[in-house]
Amino acid sequence: MPNKDNQVLQDTTKAINATILRAKLLDTIMTGVFYVVALFFLVLLIVFATYIIVKGFMDFDISMMAFDHRGIGNQLFNTVYLVILALLISVPLGLLSGIYMAEYAKPGRVTKIIRISIETLSSLPSIVVGLFGYLVFIVMTGSQWNLFAGALAVSILSLPIISTTTEDALKSLPDGYKKGSYGMGATKWQTIRMVLLPACIPQIMTGIILAAGRAFGEAAALMFTAGMSTDINWNSTNLFSSTHPLNPFRPGETLALQIWASRTEAIAENSTQIANLCAAILMIMVFTFSISARYISQHINKKMIGDNK
Amino acid sequence: MREYIGDVMGESNVHSLDTSTAVHSIQDKFIVDKLDLYYGTFKALKEISMNIKESEVTALIGPSGCGKSTFLKTLNRMNDLDSTVRIEGSVLLDNKNIFTEIDVINLRQWVGMVFQQPNPFPKSIYDNIAYGPRVQGITKKAELDIIVERSLRQAAIWDEAKDRLHKSALGMSGGQQQRLCIARTLATKPDVILMDEPTSALDPISTLKIEELVLELKKDYTIVIVTHNMQQASRISDKTAFFLLGDLIEYNTTEEIFTNPKNPKTEEYITGRFG
Predict the structure, then answer these.
(1) Is B259 on the interface with A (CB under 8 A)?
(2) What are the φ and ψ backbone dihedral angles of B91, each rounded to 5 degrees?
(3) Residue B141 pLDDT exceeds 80
(4) Three-class DSSP category at B224
(5) What are the boundaries of each domain within chain A?
(6) How far apart are CA A293 and CA A289, in angstroms?
(7) Which of B122, B127, B200, B202 gives the lowest tally of CB atoms within 10 Å of its CB?
(8) What's the pLDDT tens digit per position in A72-91?
């Protein structure tokens, strides 16, 4: 009997060892798979970015950057201005709605409907938003194509991004922050403003970066709202003039739209180079924006939570 | 030392004076009368009546789920955060009903709370301590500096914190974080400090430091502490209340409870026969 028992135990040990061996092998394989996937995307990004930037600046000519109809200076300015306008609209609204969803909305049917609406909003085809914007912000208001209408249209697309990231960030905070703050006699708003929101800054910044990325690259939603033309008089001193650069109620073609126009209907002989240059500049702008936003966010965060070095 | 934020806590001073004209003994900080508490339909506290004396340490003991933490949270209305909670009966703080006569914001400034898990905010040590005073409207740096140093000294963590005031509180050890949380509570100038198993997540040395701190603090504050640790209750408390299934089984001086319990259930629990 003891011999048989020993035999059983030995078999069990063998089986366990085999299982451990298999688990270890699988672990090595999976680690490899993840490295390969990560590497693939890194290489893809580098190749992609290099191709666009090299191609964009291959036949670079300083006149292509001119701030008039020959260059894309105006479009560059319009893009930056539109992103700023869109963020001015969507960041406060997105933050407020995210805070509402995370801290004030009571679980129930209404909240469910609001959440579904926000999710739907974020996945609307941008051409639909563009046509909706055209109908509401241009036709119904009886105005011309203008940057502000474009910013509103883009905000429809970027607002859900900011709202959802804010909500998720607030909800993922440890319960102890809230309890600790309430326990000291802070009000709900003091708790949100002084403890919860500061703790969410990195995630909220990510939301803003994504939203800005959306605004930088948007074309379809702007075609019928911000318009496909631009006419800026850089010497204008009258903010209400339709050619003053800072008048938000003037038409303003952006870089993304310029790409589309150059590749479809342009008649200028260098339209291909213009499109390539626009693409390269657009990408550099998005990179720069992301990196500086992250830097600012880190800086604020360090100031908020205290340096730990 | 207590008057430096007196103007902000003006209401607090007024409310403290009320006790002098009260019919009840000046010693009673809390008078709990027939307190019932329900979570939905579940009755978690059954007709609890007890007086909690000023400048004493009162320990609440009992097995898990007996209602001792729920009772503690009632004293500064942290239960309000749970919408299913319904409360009947009365709790008087300095002879004022905490549900009807005292604003919940003021109540929580007077009755501070330290939680089971150390929960410093993701801010610097300085900003953690200054949070309560800032919430109360104190913004002058000179004033805040005084409060921060004083609170950290009171919580016996000044020496460890003074060279890293502007570094993150999250970089401290668990025991240090818990003493920081006590300091943070002290900075709001409470009369009472509630502690919900404050050492259950800490190592023995940190636990000892917190216990020493509690003994030191009881000179100036009324302390109510929930603990699973029988030795801890006997070491630091003046009064002990034994809870079981939502009932207050026995409430007496700690010495009596541990040497001469009246109720057989109390005896069974403190001798470790169940729980």
Answers:
(1) no
(2) -130, 120
(3) yes
(4) strand
(5) 1-58, 66-305
(6) 6
(7) B200
(8) 999 999 999 999 999 999 99
Residue pLDDT, tens place only, A149-171: 999 999 999 999 999 999 999 99
Contact criterion met (CB < 8 Å) for A183 and B185 = yes
Q: Inform me whether the pLDDT recorded for B18 exceeds 70.
A: no
Asked if B14 is an interface residue toward chain A (Cβ–Cβ < 8 A), one would say no
Q: Which of B12, B168, B180, B189 is the best mutation test for A, with the most CBs of A within 10 A?
A: B168
Nearest CA in chain A to B83: A106
Q: Which CATH class is domain B10-121+190-270?
A: alpha beta
Q: Does B61 lie at the interface with A, CB-CB under 8 angstroms?
A: no
The reported pLDDT for the residue numbered B131 is 96
Q: What is the pLDDT of residue A308?
A: 54
Token look-up 């009772």 returns B71
- Across B219-255, b (16+ Cβ under 10 Å) vs e yields eebbbbbbbbbbebbbbbbebbbbbbebbbbbbbebe
A187 CB neighbours in chain B (<8 A) are 105, 135
| A266/A277 Cα distance (integer angstroms) | 15
**Are B193 and B215 within 8 A, CB to CB?**
no
Q: Which residue, among B119, B139, B172, B186, would best test binding to A if mutated, counting the most A CBs under 10 Å from its CB? A: B119
Fold for the domain defined by A66-305: MetI-like fold (1.10.3720)
Give the model confidence (pLDDT) of B193-221 as tens digits: 999 999 998 899 999 999 999 999 999 99
B188 to A185: CB separation less than 8 angstroms, yes or no: yes
> CA A102, CA A114: separation in Å to the nearest integer?
12
DSSP string, B147-161: HHHHHHHHTT-HHHH
C-alpha distance from B267 to closest chain A C-alpha (Å): 34
- Nearest Cα of chain B lies from the Cα of A60 at a distance, in angstroms, of 49
Q: Tokens in use for A258? A: 């310029």
What are the sequence ranges of the domains in chain B? Answer: 10-121+190-270
CB contact under 8 A, B132 and A185: yes
Helix axes A201-217, A271-305, angle to 10 degrees: 170
Interface test with A, best of B11, B110, B124, B178 (most A CBs within 10 A): B124
User: By the 8 A CB rule, do A75 and A258 touch?
Assistant: yes
Note whether B137 contacts A: Cβ–Cβ < 8 A: no
